[in-house]
Amino acid sequence: MSDSELPLEEIPGAYGLPFFGAIRDRLDYFYFQGRDEFFRDRMRKYRSTVFRSNMPPGPFISSNPKVVVLLDAASFPVLFDTSKVEKWNVLDGTYMPSTALTGGYRACAFLDPSEPKHAELKRWFLSLLAARRDVCIPTLRSCLSDLFVDLEDELSSKGKASFNSLNDKMSFNFVFELLCGQKPSSTILGTKGAAMFDQWIALQLAPIMSLGFNNMVLNFLEDVILHTFPLPPFLAKSSYKKLYDAYSEHASSILDEAERLGLDRDEACHNLVFLAGFNAYGGMKATLPILIKWVGSAGEELHRRLAREIRSTVASEGGVTLAALDKMSLTKSVVYEALRIDPPVPYQYGKARRDVVVRSHDAAFRIRKGEMVFGYQPFATKDPRVFDDPEEFVGDRFVGEGEKLLRYVYWSNGRETDGPTAGNKQCAGKDLVLNVCRVVLVELFLRYDTFDAGCESLPVGSSVTFRSLTKATSC
Ligand code: HEM
Predict the structure, then answer these.
(1) Are 81 and 127 in the same domain?
(2) What is the pLDDT of residue 457?
(3) For residue 52, what are the domain limits?
């Protein structure tokens, strides 16, 4: 059946009683069912990948928790179409954290493209990232070199090494050095920058986070403390001020450029801190453990193939360059596959600008103007109607003919075949993120033949512990 012939159906599902329906859905989501089962159960019950539900946090943090859920690869991309959905204050979902956390300003990621400030800020971001293209790889390699030294030390002294804490430190240092041209350790931040950002990010995401206690009393307390009222922004005030001061002092050339473009310096600096802390550091904090987790679980055969590709390409290209990275088709595919199977930012929201018709594989649905649309990306990018063995990590899925499937990889809030512009809401760091992930694999397999790691779920993302690293036998 062609798209236009799909029958128009009522959107199934219900919001339940006012207040109680939202609380019930919140408890199911966090405690009784868990995230994936929450969606799977309703998808089965309504026999549809499009249905109505409440999304956390609900009362008293979000004024309206009602959403239309999208769970398949066909309907999901409506969220990228800013002519159909409005992206005003929807970064975190049905609530907006206090602007006291961002100097009283709404950061770029909260702005809708119809607001002129969005294009001004995003253009500035895209140009400052483009200007740093050449220093990106050497800066990252030097930060990764420190990470691997620490990882080996910890492994030899304790028999295991936590990747996450070392990754946090590496990610913070890399982003600061990329934007400020110097190491944060020589500034007022010392070695505390990552922890300061963690505290500030946690205040923003607390309403949609769970610490995963295995105890009903603790879960009840957590629900009251994290999900019922916003935590007061003053808890992060002093950390945030130090971060702001450090960026204000050391990123002066970037801020001069912002002023030249007509932006207010104070607003630009708060936006820069948001870009560095929430977007870039927060993104790397979530993404790199996911990458290591899946590559680790794929085992020695994939490690051998990656090492072979990486070492031969680096040798033939004369180093780790952007051109060399571009020639590593298996390495690129492995990164896409990790972002497909476990998208680091699993949620996307948008409010219907007007009445829109959304099509799943089987039916069409009318969403009314003003209704909130919510996409749960891990289901959309594991859609069995698009991907064979969607739950399997297939390292070479996107090699050769497989590249055609890249249009169904959505991690960046857009198709992998599209790019960020001042007019859309796709991640401004898309290319940087892909290169960072590729360089992490390159450094890993230049140094080691294989590794073994265990992993556990965290409130946001995964925790990865290295159990062994086998040094490279040839390089
Ligand atoms: C490392 C992993 C990263 C992931 C997984 C990621 C993912 C995303 C996603 C999903 C969005 C859209 C959010 C939404 O509106 O629903 C986004 C937006 C954005 N990201 Fe990233 N990001 C990452 C890193 C970065 C980096 C390194 C930068 C820049 C240095 C960056 C800059 C931005 C900006 C500025 C936006 C807002 C775009 C706009 O408002 O038009 N991100 N990112």
Answers:
(1) no
(2) 85
(3) 1-86+344-380
pTM for the full predicted model: 0.98
Per residue in 230-283, pLDDT (tens digit) is 999 999 999 999 999 999 999 999 999 999 999 999 999 999 999 999 999 999
Confidence check: pLDDT of 354 > 80 = yes
Q: Which two tokens stand for residue 68?
A: 């239309």
Instruction: Assess whether 353 and 394 both reside in one domain.
Output: no
For a mutational test of ligand 1's pocket, the pick from 89, 106, 279, i.e. the residue with the most ligand atoms closer than 8 A to its C-beta, is: 279
**Cα(65) to centroid(ligand 1), Å:** 24
User: What pairing do the DSSP bridges indicate for beta strands 85-86 and 372-376?
Assistant: unpaired
Domain count of the fold of the chain: 2
Ligand 1 centroid – CA 311 distance (Å):
31
Domain end call among 325, 353, 380: 380
| Cα gap 341→298, rounded to integer Å | 13
**Domain at 396, CATH number:** 1.10.630.10
Q: Are residues 94 and 151 in the same domain?
A: yes
Percent of residues, the chain, with pLDDT higher than 90: 97
- Rounded to an integer, what distance in angstroms lies between the CA atom of residue 396 and that of residue 443? 19
Task: Output the ligand 1 site: residues, CB below 6 A.
Answer: 87, 91, 108-109, 122, 125, 129, 275, 279-280, 283-284, 287, 344-345, 348, 411-413, 425, 427-429, 432-433
| 126 and 42 co-located in one domain | no
Mean pLDDT (the chain) is 97
- What's the Cα-to-Cα distance from 319 to each of 311, 314, 324, 332, 439, rounded to whole Å? 10, 5, 7, 17, 12
